Amino acid sequence: MKTTVKWKGRRSFQGTTETGHSVLMDGPVKFGGDDTGPRPMELLLVGLGGCTAYDVVSILEKKRLDIIGLKVEIDADRTDTHPKIYSEIRVRFIISGRNISEKAVQQAIDLSEKKLCSASAMLRKSANIVTTYEIQELKS
């Protein structure tokens, strides 16, 4: 994969992939940015949430589970020695649907984190990732 990052002025940068998808990265005003986009480290967390959510939904749909909604909440702590590196990342899945199996959800999360999601593999090298989930059962 190829990515191009171009300076947009002040502390703003536009990252574009070879497929044409782009994202604006920016710094806070107090550090000379315009605060118009996420910081690069925030994008890592968005990547982790999106990657695992994509995997979990795909796996559960293949099992023909009736998934209506999925949200991933991520809360991360930075290290004391390097404030830009995460030491602990807490990932919480909130899954809504009908007749959702706890075992299937746990298996899907485990498979994503350990074998499928490259963002998870990368972040696990420096941070402790703790994952929990909640199933919101909807009435038929």
Topology:
Layout: E1 3-9, E2 12-17, E3 22-25, H1 40-62, E4 66-78, E5 86-98, H2 102-116, H3 118-124, E6 128-137
Parallel strand pairs: 5-6
Antiparallel strand pairs: 1-2, 2-3, 4-5
Helix pairs in contact: 1-2, 1-3
Descriptive overview:
There is one protein chain. Strands 1-2-3 form a three-stranded antiparallel sheet, with no helix packed on it. A three-stranded mixed sheet has the order 4-5-6, covered by helices on one side. Strand 1 (about 5-10) and strand 2 (about 10-15) form a beta hairpin. The protein is α+β, with helices and mostly antiparallel strands. The protein has helices at about 40-60, 100-115, 120-125, and strands spanning about 5-10, 10-15, 20-25, 65-80, 85-100, 130-135. The mean pLDDT is about 90. Helix content is about 30%, strand content about 40%. The chain folds into two domains: about 1-35, N-terminal domain of TfIIb (Single Sheet); about 40-135, GMP Synthetase, Chain A, domain 3 (2-Layer Sandwich). It is built from three helices and six strands; from the N terminus they run βββαββααβ.
Low-pLDDT stretches = none
Number of domains: 2
Helix and strand content put the structural class at alpha+beta
What name does the CATH topology of the largest domain carry? GMP Synthetase, Chain A, domain 3
Main beta-sheet strand count, sense and barrel state: 3 strands, antiparallel
Overall CATH architecture of the largest domain: 2-Layer Sandwich
- What's the CATH class of the largest domain, please? Alpha Beta
How would you state the average pLDDT, rounded?
A: 91
State the total count of DSSP E strands.
Answer: 6
Order of helices and strands: EEEHEEHHE
User: What gap, in angstroms, lies between the N and C termini?
Assistant: 44 Å
Number of helices: 3
Tell me what portion of residues adopts beta-strand conformation. Answer: 35-45%
- The strand order across the widest sheet is 1-2-3
Q: Which percent range fits the helix content?
A: 25-40%
Radius of gyration: 17 Å
